[in-house]
Design brief:
heterodimer; A: Nucleotidyltransferase, domain 5; 10 strands; B: about 425 residues; alpha/beta; 4-stranded parallel sheet; about 55% helix
């Protein structure tokens, strides 16, 4: 018998995401919190909280896990973020296309087939320059909080060119730019363009020419980034609803289907 | 004279003694409960392979001063050196051995401290580092009297061997093979043949012997036969289930690389072929549960072969063919004992890395069909640019034309510092999940 509620956990490198969904894929409860190094403990606590929030129907809910911490979580099913993001995104869009997930530690470009299956994918190599960490490190250096990014980009008169080769080098480059009096708004805009160009290059190795492009992951909450990526790819990007929960949602749906 | 006696004794007495000692130690080793393994029963021939390669490297310790010694690149027509009594050492094979033993970082550090860039091929850094430190898993490598380099595998070997020649003060012979689009032109063939004639002159001078045409024809015949036997071993994996894994092939390739043109090489591959054919008849697979068959492109990731093959085998995936091991099976068809130098020129010019991308694609397509694979992993090798260039296009074509699922896996064939185990595992697992 298919259980009526399933729980999906996405133990990412930066944030821990969790959802409880019903058989129709509706989110009954969700959690997003900073990732703890004690992932087993965090998972146990969050599962307890979700069970309580979703009510008695969730008492026997099975757990599906994804993200880098998935192997350390006691779960009925563990799948990679690639499979879970594709599944979670498709459950919301119901359309094939190219899904871009810019996560904290890696960026994934996934070609999703007409049934929500993974046809192909590419990830950034062992380097954080194309990931959310790139933005986080440098915005931190500029003392620009994430919720003020949009405002900064909108105010920028022009973009200041920033290299996207390496997060560490870009950080020192930004320090020099600030010292030389470059406007913070322009640097923030330049950063978004640099990251977008890096992600777009990765997307081109996988994306089918005319395919619709979707975006999931925490960075999709940053409208300036979505816009910059759309410009770099030359097409509009559709953000999957509740983008940060997409991986956890995919894990919940996968364990529900087992 | 004494040195020659030591060399002969090392081959005839020392190496068999080491093999017997190893067999005795193996029998004495306590055996625990059999572990749950995703692999099929181990190949019997592996023991013979170890004996053969141990003997080669053990005898090599006593080679310099006893017989002429040549250090050669893997794509060099070594059969030309056999009749002159050369002991051939393959720095690439030795470097791979260092890779498997995971000593490359310390060797590479030594080479980098000498000024060699980390972006240089990790085989070259391993080799230079081993030379600088004297560190090697084989005890000792004999000093060369001759360096023999063929540019059919890459241009790096040219600079690598020039650096060795400067350091060691020994002659370097270079066989420069023009890159082939389609088929080598007559002037290409003449150009390579002329260089092989020069090689003969230099090798004769270094060895102090004249080449006997009959012996050269015989070595060429053996090299051709060895290549064909190796091809038969690989072809056994067209059966379902494949009787071994493509990753087994990475290790069993050693004799066709280092002992090509010798009786020992061919005797070994007859033994291996017979065992593989027997496994095919009995339906014994390289992995216990073969559900998906894959193709591997590019060099192995020597330090992670076991890790990758286990990850895959546990989920029923087997690499049944690799473009790398196939390269040594392909060479034989163009070799002609009636025209050793002319045919060697043609055969060695047409190796996979010296041909255009269309040939690569044709080879991968042919392997995919013959071995009935449903997916491919293209290893984008940081250290081997000639092998890695074009893989994004190859990936697209294999997926579009043959419906294969294809993964591009970034790594390095010999330097574990360019390898992130967790990230690689994530990619391989996601790739396998996409078959569900």
């Amino acid at each position: 018998m298919t259980p009526s509620v399933a729980i999906g956990l996405d133990a990412g490198s930066t944030t821990f995401k969790a959802v409880a969904v019903d058989a129709g894929g509706r989110v009954l409860a969700a959690r997003v919190e900073p990732a703890s190094p004690r992932v087993e403990e965090q998972a146990r606590r969050v599962v307890g909280e979700l069970r309580a929030a979703a009510g008695p129907v969730a008492a026997d809910a099975r757990v599906g896990a994804t993200g880098y911490g998935r192997k350390r979580i006691p779960a009925a099913l563990a799948l990679t973020e690639i499979t879970c993001h594709a599944r979670g995104a498709f459950s919301r869009t119901r359309r094939p296309g190219v899904l871009v997930d810019v996560g904290g530690q890696d960026t994934k470009v996934i070609r999703v087939g007409p049934a929500g299956e993974v046809l192909d994918f590419a990830m950034n190599d062992k380097c954080a320059a194309g990931t959310g960490r790139f933005l986080e490190v440098i915005l931190g250096r500029l003392h620009v909080p994430l919720d003020a990014v949009g405002e900064h980009v909108a105010r920028a008169a022009g973009a200041v060119a920033v290299s996207s080769t390496c997060t560490v080098f870009a950080e020192s480059e930004v320090i020099s730019l600030v010292a030389d009096g470059a406007p913070i708004e322009g640097i923030v805009k330049g950063l978004h363009q640099a990251l977008a160009s890096r992600v777009a290059t990765l997307a081109r190795t996988t994306a089918g020419g005319g395919a619709e492009v979707f975006m999931s992951g925490g960075v999709a909450l940053n409208a300036a980034m979505v816009e910059a990526l759309g410009k770099a790819l030359g097409k509009p990007i559709a953000v999957v609803p509740e983008p940060q929960l997409v991986g956890a949602l995919g894990a919940a749906l996968a364990v529900m289907a087992r | 004279m004494l040195r020659r006696m030591q060399y002969e004794a090392a081959g005839r007495i020392g190496a068999p003694f080491l093999a017997a000692l190893e067999a005795w130690q193996r029998r004495l080793r306590p055996r625990g409960a059999p572990r749950e393994s995703p692999f099929g029963p181990p190949l019997e021939a592996t023991r013979k392979l170890k004996e053969l390669m141990t003997a080669h490297y053990f005898q090599g310790r006593y080679a310099d001063g006893a017989v002429p010694v040549a250090w050669v690149t893997s794509g060099f027509p070594v059969e030309v050196l056999r009749p002159l009594g050369f002991h051939a050492v393959y720095p690439e094979n030795h470097a791979a051995l260092c890779g498997v033993r995971r000593i490359v970082p310390e060797l590479s550090d030594a080479a980098e401290a000498e000024g060699y860039a980390r972006d240089l091929c990790s085989y070259a850094r391993t080799d230079v580092g081993s030379l600088l430190t004297g560190s090697t898993p084989v005890g000792r490598l004999p000093r060369p009297d001759l360096l023999a380099c063929c540019t059919n595998i890459c241009q790096t070997v040219l600079y690598w061997y020039r650096a060795l020649a400067a350091k060691l003060g020994v002659p370097l012979v270079l066989v420069d093979t023009p890159y082939v689009y389609g088929e080598a032109k007559p002037h290409h063939r003449a150009y390579v043949r002329a260089q092989l004639e020069e090689l003969v002159a230099v090798a004769e001078r270094v060895s102090g012997r004249k080449i006997d045409p009959e012996e050269l024809a015989e070595a060429t015949r053996k090299a051709k036969e060895g290549s064909e036997l190796w091809g038969e071993c690989l072809a056994a994996a067209t059966s379902k289930p494949a009787p071994w894994t493509g990753f087994d092939g990475f290790f069993h390739i050693a004799p066709i690389v280092t002992l090509r043109g010798t009786d020992a090489c061919n005797a070994y591959y007859r033994l291996l072929r017979d065992e593989l054919c027997d496994r095919v008849r009995r339906g014994v697979g390289g992995i216990r549960r073969e559900e998906h068959r894959l193709l591997w492109d590019n060099l192995p990731i020597w330090f992670a072969v076991r890790e990758i093959s286990t990850t895959l085998a546990e989920r029923g995936f087997n690499f049944v063919c690799t473009s790398y091991t196939n390269a040594w099976a392909e060479a034989g068809s163009r070799v002609d004992p009636a025209d050793p130098l002319g045919s060697a020129g043609v055969a060695y010019t047409h190796v996979i890395l010296n041909q255009d991308l269309r040939h690569r694609l044709d080879t991968l397509r042919r392997l995919a069909r013959e071995y009935q694979v449903d997916g491919a992993v293209l290893h984008s090798d940081r250290s081997c640019k000639p092998y890695s260039v074009g893989q994004v296009d190859l990936k697209e074509r294999l997926a579009a034309e043959l419906g294969l699922r294809v993964l591009l896996l970034e790594a390095d064939h010999n330097d574990p510092r360019a390898w992130a185990s967790e990230q690689a595992d994530n990619r391989l697992t996601a790739f396998m999940e996409s078959f569900a």
